[in-house]
Amino acid sequence: GQQLNQSPQSMFIQEGEDVSMNCTSSSIFNTWLWYKQDPGEGPVLLIALYKAGELTSNGRLTAQFGITRKDSFLNISASIPSDVGIYFCAGHMTGGGADGLTFGKGTHLIIQP
Amino acid sequence: EAGVAQSPRYKIIEKRQSVAFWCNPISGHATLYWYQQILGQGPKLLIQFQNNGVVDDSQLPKDRFSAERLKGVDSTLKIQPAKLEDSAVYLCASSPRGAVYGYTFGSGTRLTVV
């Protein structure tokens, strides 16, 4: 099965720094989603993007749905310790009844003291 | 609103043994999904149910994996016989029909096959 190309694989940053990660696909999607997963938990939805070109914010998080519908990025501003975790992009394609998500491999965010 | 419940949280079995995982979705969610998440990767869809019918099982290894959703509520995923490469976290998710925004994951069952 397809997996999305997500980069970087990991990030080591200082508290207060801004973070940027992106995701690309060879296929188009109708919806792009960004999730955060903490150890021992399931992914939790951060932002959902429904239209090509859409730019959406959720607090310190900003994400964009690429014009080609094959890419998306997520920015986190002024990182704090609780931002540590693994961030996943996911693509969703409606139609035909099957609507499972296709995930990237994740970006592991580590904040150095 | 109660979340997606899964059990057990952890399971260790020997290869060639069988194992079953249970999922109780959010009340009223018609769609239920099982995902497999191997360490270091994103979740991969195994099977999708709409009520008690299978919508997509194209990525389910049907020679050893089976799943059912009797009565359109709870679901069980079974592996028989297990292989070492089945070691992973098995995540259950549910959503209102056709609604991505309501897509909610459980905490998963971590399976280790030795």
Q: Care to give the gist of this entry?
A:
The complex is a heterodimer of chains A (113) and B (114). Chain A is mostly beta strands. Chain A is 0% helix and 51% strand.
Structural class computed from helices and strand pairing of chain B: mainly beta
By DSSP, the count of extended strands of chain B is 11
Radius of gyration of chain B: 13 Å
State the distance separating the first and last CA atoms of chain A. Answer: 38 Å
Structure description:
The complex is a heterodimer of chains A (113) and B (114). Chain A is mainly beta and 113 residues long. Chain A contains no helices and 11 strands. Chain A has strands spanning 5-7, 10-14, 19-24, 31-37, 44-49, 55-58, 61-65, 71-76, 85-92, 102-103, 107-112. In chain A, strands 2, 4, 5, 9, 10 and 11 form a 6-stranded mixed sheet that branches. A 5-stranded antiparallel sheet of chain A has the order 1-3-8-7-6, with no helix packed on it. In chain A, β7 and β8 form a beta hairpin. The mean pLDDT of chain A is 93. Chain B is globular, with a radius of gyration of 13 Å. In chain B, strands 2, 4, 5, 6, 9, 10 and 11 form a 7-stranded mixed sheet that branches. The N and C termini of chain B lie far apart (37 Å). By secondary structure, chain B is an all-beta fold. In chain B, β5 and β6 (53-56) form a beta hairpin. The A-B interface holds A 1, 3-4, 6, 31, 33, 40-45, 48, 88, 90, 92, 94, 97-106 and B 4, 31, 33, 35, 40-45, 48, 50, 55-56, 59, 91, 93, 98, 100-101, 103-108, 110.
